[in-house]
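Students often ask why we bother encoding 3D structure as a string. The short answer is that it lets us treat folding as translation between two languages. Here is a chain of 677 residues written in the first language.
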Amino acid sequence: MAFLPALRGALRLATKSAPVETKSFELDAGHTSWSGMLARLRDPRRSWPVERAVLEGMERVVWVFKSVNAIAGHASRLPIERVLIKDDGEREVITDDPLARLLNAGVANQLEKGPQLRKRLSGQVLLSPAGTFVEMTTSRRGHPIGADLLPPGRTRPVPGFGGNLLSHFETITPDGRRRAIDPEKVIWFRDPHPLDPFRGITPMEAAGLSVDLDFLARLYNATFLRNDGRPGGVIGIDGEVDDDEMERIQDIFGKGAHEAGKLTVLQGDLSFIDLAAKPRDMAYADLARISKEEILAAFGVPESILGNASGRTFDNAAQEEHQFWTHTMLPHLSLLATGWDTDHEDGAVYEFNTDSVEVLQRAKTQRRAEAREEAAAGLISLDEYRAIAGYDPVDLPHTRALYVAQGKTPIPTRQEDAVALGIAPPEDPAAAAEGGAPEGELGEQPPAGGGAPAAGDDDGAEENALSRLRNAFSETSDDKESAEADDADPDAGENAAAEDEPEDEDDDAQEEAERPRGRRQTKGSPAAGPAAELVEALCQLGGRLVGRTVARLESPKNRKGTRHFQAEFKVDTRVGANALDVARIVPVEAWQAEAEQVVLPVLAAAAVTGGGGMDAHDTAMTAAVAVGEEFGRVVEAVRGVVEELDQVGAPMEEIVQAVREVDLSDWAAAVTSELPM
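And here it is in the second language, the structure alphabet:
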């Protein structure tokens, strides 16, 4: 360990003779450089070489130490990655990069690991005007296997001659020898100087006077307290006192802080003089505060980052943290990342992974929140939102579609998605019938199916609601079909009775099972075409009528004040004797308007296809109004059934069951057959 004292002596020698050594470097270069000119113009008293910055700044002034330690500590904590940015903007992290492994968790050299090396590197960039020099050691394949920080106070770039700006790097070893290093092996980090390309610039040069002022102010106060021997007062004695007595009295009073406040006795008339100094605390407090603010401003580190958030609101402290990371840390990290980056054929770059920094994720969080609102408003699709949020797109018709806010209606963004969403008919009906669509893929509601009535329903209130509806609005169609059936087949009654046999039921079930799911096939309707689309639209509309009516019947809000409300207490005032508000539960006008909107596109397309010409739209509007009126009669019939069952005292379960048994398949086919399709 004999080399350590010699190394300390060499460092002290280099610290004392730094300007002289810089001058000798310039003379050895053989020509006048910008560095030499600026060095002669620079006042030595304002110069802050790295040795002075460490000894007189970082090691003596608390604000310099905390600022450098905060910036370097955060920079060494974040992992560094090599990222390949593709043409489409996608970012791919290269996980097997040897330099990233070395800097994150590898052994950089015999004395330190990667994070320790990066912390010292950041500190030297903030304190060394000459910059920071890292000598890289590579394997035979050219992969970095080691990194050493060269002493910045004893290392310099040597300018080249002619067109070469840099000849080589030169460093002085601890034993005093000069060693030249190939520029290809050295990475030079520095915050570039605006005039001198061979040096950098540090916050210490801007805040040097404040650093000196802060240190001298503290030193003055400490020295004053240490050397001040003034007593708190003077006592004069009238008369003569011999020397021995005077010396004895003087020895009673000493100097230093522990002697402060004592009295001194002098020869003369007895008197007391108060010599208490006026307090300089306020002057020192202002001086210390101003110096601290100037030093922290030069380094760009708020006081709350150093651990003192007193006197600040939560918002102010959070804003200071945000400014520290955006205005101080990001430029510093970018400077370090570009220094490690070299020319790669694949175009990859080195970046610091800041995903763990919460304040830097606020912009991404706000962007995801905006994207969610845009997706809810129908401005972007779910796949587009997933891409913004960092998820892989699902790439299905429903996730590619746009959903408007009213009713969440899917709007296809591709022509082929219209068929899958159930908005447009398939181009090949036979292929659609053979392949079918998966259950639930068309985004359609299942048609309202009429279940069998419950066993034992003998009362008139429990009569099948479907027969009432047919009697209410389909008398003309039923009479017409019955008359045609009687004319064509006198034995129609027998055939109708035969249809109730089990064999025919099995055939119907098999036929129903062979039909493609998602589209309801009505008896006697064509396989495809405008008529089939209209029948399907009306069946879906009937399904929505049943579903919404059942939901409103089961809603506690609509059952409040009636006998159908389920009491939660022994005495529940929400239970009453009022009748159901059938006008609110089954609104006829609203359903009639919705029916017109549903059938109008289908009728318009049929009119245009049929060669309606200029009158096609008027014809479609007239037919849509007629269909809406017919559907209004259906809704009135449903309302009548609900009102009648409620009046006769039927329970809510039976009213809901009666509504669920409504099946508009035959009605839709009858209405469609009356239209000129």
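Translate back mentally: The longest strand covers residues 132-138. Keep this in mind for the problem set.
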